[in-house]
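Practice record 12: protein with heme C.
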Amino acid sequence: MLYCQTFTSRSLRFYLMRFCIRYLAIATVVLRICSASAAQERARGAAISVECSMCHGADGIAPSEEVPNIAGQHYAYLLRQLENYQDGRRVGTIMQEVLRGLSRQQLKDISAYFASIPISVERTHAGDRDDVSGK
Ligand code: HEC
């Protein structure tokens, strides 16, 4: 009886361990595939971003104050804005025209690229400044 119990828990542990190792191996492969495709997405997005750089800057920091900075913006936010422009839910001055003909995958690629640009932000104390108070 004691022998039987020891045997069962031992083989159970063995199976559990094997399960974990297999699970880990699969998870590693899935993770590698995912990060490879994320890198590809960013690379494709970088290529398309040439069409955006005239207004939004090569690095997503716009040279004109009339154009928003998009570097380091959240991926989900960027993608939603691009989709909204494309299907007319968001009305812009030029964006609808710019995005005409781009596929959903291309919008994802662009979003992934601009979201991946690292930015650093300093506190501006904007509320203390006269020129941005709106008065
Ligand atoms: C001719 C100038 C121009 C080009 C080219 C252009 N944009 Fe824009 N973009 C703008 C302006 C101006 C706005 C502000 C909204 C508006 O007036 O349409 C804007 C807004 C945006 C926004 C919304 C930002 C926010 O904070 O909500 C995103 C995202 C964006 N552009 C992405 C892109 C991408 C990606 C490309 C390239 C495929 C691109 N833009 C090309 C001028 C441009």
